[in-house]
Write a sequence for this structure.
């Protein structure tokens, strides 16, 4: 009652609240739990909700944290649930109590995980090893509770904080991982449909591999986000049989749990065989209507029945379908979802480079149990471990995150299972060019009580807060566009010196400005592929513009100017790729004008040019033997003739 009176009227009586709440704990009489329970019984709302409605700021955070620390995670239900099932008389009440107890303990674990994520991201740098081990040993439903707990603790979205701490493919994979399944699917659909043309394979990949419930949830979330029907967007993005298949799968009418009907499988096999004519043409509508409505198990039975009766695979008949993408989609319907996604990952690893977007979308968008099933299917199909394929094709923290997601078990389901994350390789740059920070590889298998954040490892002196000059043991300088070396201030030099002593391959974010100083093996960027002789590089994190950084002892005389290779303008450009064809320079005959072939164009391609005499736009074709950087002659068009005294006609000039 005294708490309620302190919160009534114009503003709350903070002194009374502090005196009452601060004087209660688990051992006081009455205890904090007893007071909170009595308040909820009397005023039909929790004490936390009442405090949130009347106070704010750090006082609110401290008050709710104090109440949470003294709460019983199981809500006093252990006495009711710790009974013998055989002797229990009210099993329905026992089941209700078990569900409430389970949810309460999960919420407590989510609070602990949210605090641990904050500890990993707070301070100087990010503890990527601890962060990866925590996120990859949780399921997506639990991560949604962690995100809600983080927002309640910090008033900031968890995903926004994680994206600010990561870059490159590491950021994209973590985004798909932390997002809810429907949000991850909406992101994948937007990525497939935005821009010029639609990625039909990515759209069908979502519709084929995801469960019907997940497809319906993603459809509702997409329509709520864009305020338009998804079916209309798919109709505008896809065409032909691809559109028919996508719209059929979007209905979500497949019965995934229906038993296999062998008789129906034989009848469908006959129908599909009749759908292929003797000349090889196929009835696409019949294939779509049967395969898109069957469950994965029914399609497997259909595949087996067709092969037994006609002594050929059903895939060979599907291969006769006209559209290439439709062939892939229909063949995917014959596979279990885990096998199909394993095939997609395998194809992402084949060829020149890795399709990292497919890896992030497929693995990061899958739940924990689905990711483990994909890894098992990959090993069964290709007799190699998916973890080894990721190790070969990916790098840095992106590699560590992907490997952990497909190997680590769910720690909440199996708390005794070991949680091992691959050790960080300091000399190996990440997929975004940033060398990973060394982290302890093995965090606890189950959540522990939150600990206060550790003090920052390196004290950062502020130049405006000291009266005397900071003692330095080294001077750090960067080279500008004129070749002049400019020294960093004492505080920044101290930070750089401390970082490079603790890690020769350190990456240091300069405070207050969007620049990083990269040392050792990490001293590279998109503009400079190899570390400079000085072993350090300053990089703009937005556009990768780079400057060379050097170190010299304090009090020493500056060395002579650097070699000419590093005396040039500050923006070091990587050497241009070799020109595939030698440019052909021609003498321009009379009555023509020269046209320069831009990069990325070659013989047989068309260019739009403007005639210098008439200003008219012309379409010309690049002749054979002329590559990028070369020139060729184009005849000047004749200006239109105008007859005076007669209506002017619209003359057309021939295009060369």
């Amino acid at each position: 009652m005294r708490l309620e009176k302190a919160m009534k009227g114009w503003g709350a009586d903070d002194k009374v609240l502090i005196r009452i709440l601060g004087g209660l704990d688990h051992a006081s009489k009455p205890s904090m739990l007893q007071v909170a329970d009595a308040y909820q019984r009397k005023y039909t709302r929790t004490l936390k909700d009442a405090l949130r409605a009347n106070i704010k700021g750090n006082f609110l955070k401290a008050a709710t944290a104090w109440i949470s620390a003294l709460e019983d995670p199981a809500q006093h239900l252990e006495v009711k649930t710790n009974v013998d099932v055989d002797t229990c008389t009210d099993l329905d009440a026992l089941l209700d109590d078990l569900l409430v107890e389970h949810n309460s303990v999960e919420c407590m674990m989510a609070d602990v995980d949210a605090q641990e994520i904050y500890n990993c991201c707070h301070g100087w740098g990010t503890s990527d090893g601890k962060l990866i081990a925590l996120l990859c040993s949780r399921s997506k439903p639990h991560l949604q509770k962690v995100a809600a707990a983080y927002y309640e603790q910090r008033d900031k979205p968890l995903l926004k904080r994680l994206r600010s701490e990561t870059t490159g493919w590491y950021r994209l994979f973590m985004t798909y991982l932390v997002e809810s399944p429907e949000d991850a699917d909406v992101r994948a659909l937007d990525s497939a449909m935005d821009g010029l043309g639609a990625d039909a394979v990515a759209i069908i990949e979502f519709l084929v591999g995801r469960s019907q419930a997940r497809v319906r949830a993603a459809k509702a979330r997409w329509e709520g986000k864009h305020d338009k029907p998804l079916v209309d967007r798919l109709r505008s993005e896809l065409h032909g049989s691809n559109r028919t298949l996508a719209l059929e799968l979007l209905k979500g009418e497949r019965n995934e749990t229906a038993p296999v009907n062998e008789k129906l499988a034989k009848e469908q096999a006959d129908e599909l065989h009749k759908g292929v004519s003797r000349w090889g043409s196929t009835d696409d509508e019949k294939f779509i209507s049967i395969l898109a409505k069957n469950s994965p198990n029914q399609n497997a039975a259909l595949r087996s029945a067709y092969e037994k009766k006609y002594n050929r695979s059903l895939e060979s008949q599907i291969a006769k379908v006209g559209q290439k993408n439709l062939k892939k989609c229909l063949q995917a319907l014959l596979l279990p979802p885990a096998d199909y996604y394993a095939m997609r990952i395998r194809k992402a690893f084949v060829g020149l480079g890795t399709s990292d977007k497919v890896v992030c979308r497929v693995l990061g968008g899958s739940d924990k149990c689905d990711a483990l099933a994909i890894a098992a299917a990959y090993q069964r199909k290709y007799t190699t471990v998916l973890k080894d394929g990721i190790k070969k094709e990916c790098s840095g923290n992106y590699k560590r995150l992907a490997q952990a997601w497909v190997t680590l078990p769910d720690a909440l389901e199996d708390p005794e299972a070991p949680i091992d994350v691959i050790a960080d390789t300091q000399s190996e740059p990440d997929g975004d060019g940033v060398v990973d920070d060394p982290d302890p590889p093995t965090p606890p298998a189950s959540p522990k009580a939150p600990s206060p954040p550790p003090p920052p490892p390196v004290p950062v002196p502020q130049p405006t807060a000291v009266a005397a000059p900071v003692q330095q043991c080294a001077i750090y300088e960067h080279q500008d566009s004129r070749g002049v070396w400019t020294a960093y201030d004492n505080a920044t030099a101290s930070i750089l010196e401390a970082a490079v002593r603790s890690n020769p391959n350190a990456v240091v974010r300069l405070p207050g400005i969007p620049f990083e100083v990269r040392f050792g093996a990490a001293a590279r960027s998109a503009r400079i592929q190899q570390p400079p002789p000085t072993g350090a590089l300053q990089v703009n994190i937005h556009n990768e513009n780079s400057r060379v950084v050097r170190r010299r002892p304090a009090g020493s005389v500056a060395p002579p100017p650097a070699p000419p290779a590093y005396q040039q303008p500050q923006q070091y450009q990587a050497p241009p790729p070799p020109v595939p064809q030698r440019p052909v320079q021609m003498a321009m005959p009379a009555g023509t004008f020269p046209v320069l072939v831009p990069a990325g164009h070659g013989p047989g391609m068309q260019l739009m040019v403007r005639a210098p005499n008439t200003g008219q736009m012309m379409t010309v074709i690049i002749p054979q033997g002329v590559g990028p950087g070369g020139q060729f002659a184009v005849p000047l068009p004749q200006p239109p003739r105008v007859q005076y005294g007669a209506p002017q006609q619209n003359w057309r000039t021939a295009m060369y």
